[in-house]
Amino acid sequence: MIEAEVTVVNRAGIHTRPAASLVKLAARFKSEIFLIRDGFAINAKSIIGVMTLAAEQGSKLTLRVEGEDEESAVNDISALFASGFGEE
Amino acid sequence: MINNESESGTTKKENTIAAPSQILGEFVMKGIPSSSGISIGKAYIIQPETLAIPEEYISPDIIPDETVRFENALEEMVSELYRVLSKIKIESKNVYAVVETNLLILTDSIFIDSIKKRIRKGYSVENAVIQEFDHRKQKLKLSKDAILRERGIELELIKERFIRVLRNRTLTYSIAPNSIVVAQSVSPAEIINFREAGVIGIITELGGISSHSSILARTFEIPEVIGVKDATQAIPENVLIIVDGYSGVITALPDKKTLEEYQRRKDKEGEQKKKLGKMMKLPSVTTDGKAIHLMTNVNFPEEIESSLLYGAEGIGLVRTEHLITKLGYFPSEDEQFVWYSEIAQQMYPSPVTFRAFDLGSDKYAEGMPHHENNPALGFPGIKFFLPKKE
Hints:
CATH class of the largest domain in chain B: Alpha Beta
Radius of gyration of chain B: 25 Å
Oligomer: heterodimer
Number of strands of chain B: 13
Structural class of chain A: alpha+beta
Radius of gyration of chain A: 11 Å
Largest sheet of chain B: 8 strands, mixed
Helix content of chain A: 25-40%
Distance between the termini of chain A: 31 Å
CATH architecture of the largest domain in chain B: 3-Layer(bba) Sandwich
Number of strands of chain A: 4
Low-confidence stretches of chain B: 1-21
């Protein structure tokens, strides 16, 4: 199991489009992927979960990944967060 | 009618069920014009779903049936969205993204399982769906971020559609051609269905000018007026109604004079289109032989298609600030690049002129540096860049 901290850097937060890209990326991995905010964990493969995280700009989340491809999952998802989901 | 009753003493049935036109005369409502044009047609009212479902619990032996009913409705919605996706691709990238998200939501196994769990607990499908959607929406409402709070509306639209499908109201297929739809709100998917059904105008109680539905209405050239308060309650089913997508005025049960006036304007609009249509392919040359470049102004990439259709020789002006007002925040360089190159590519090899953000202070975007009450001020054009050192 790997844990990493990710920060929402894009101005609009995880709204619909970033949520969709995050979920589509997460779905590519076999590992179980969770995002945790204030002790509340959601499955990153669930769009409704990601949307209802209501993560606005600046919020810090814990990424928890467990499974055979956990390393690449953490890397790729952290990179997506760092890129601000391709937004400002 | 009240007089009638008291005079005759005993009221005949015919008197109590009077045609709406006998009860009411012409009346006017006002909204926000969001897609231009004039339409005259019969009102088709889509009543907002009353979401109060009386029976709380279902008997345990029908739980399997309820689960099947849920799965059927889900399947119907998913296949409808796939059908819409196959049609939407060429029309608008943004709308495509929205429909795709709806699809991701309806195929989200965690979400679907939570609804099924509620059914297994003994709630009816409608109850289970409403509870689960409201539960999720509640979380979004608590967000500090306006954009995220707005996502709640998206969930609301999906929920309503779900309830409609569950109640077997496949609305869009029963709409007569040349109807004017009056609804609380419409989804992009519905607009696509409306167009196929031959709907000629749309009136909604809610909605935004930059909403995906409004963009589609403009793309399809269906006149639309939004923000008409209580429209679904005030306008009787099947009455004649006029949508003025220029001024935002709705006239129900128009009297002869109003109808003639609008008919005249509509004919004129049609003639003009026809006249323009004939001229469309002619080269724009003055009588003394001087060539003039006839170009169009564009607010959104979706409008390029009609520019090309009408034979524009290029885009004279792209109002780039609409990118900001549409997004509601300041777009990144990458987002701007995608938007601008999409326009340039579609027009290639014709020239395109992009105007710098004309941000009068009446246009506000999140993260804007300055507040100013006079709409003539603000940060139009180069003023926007001046305070930026980079």
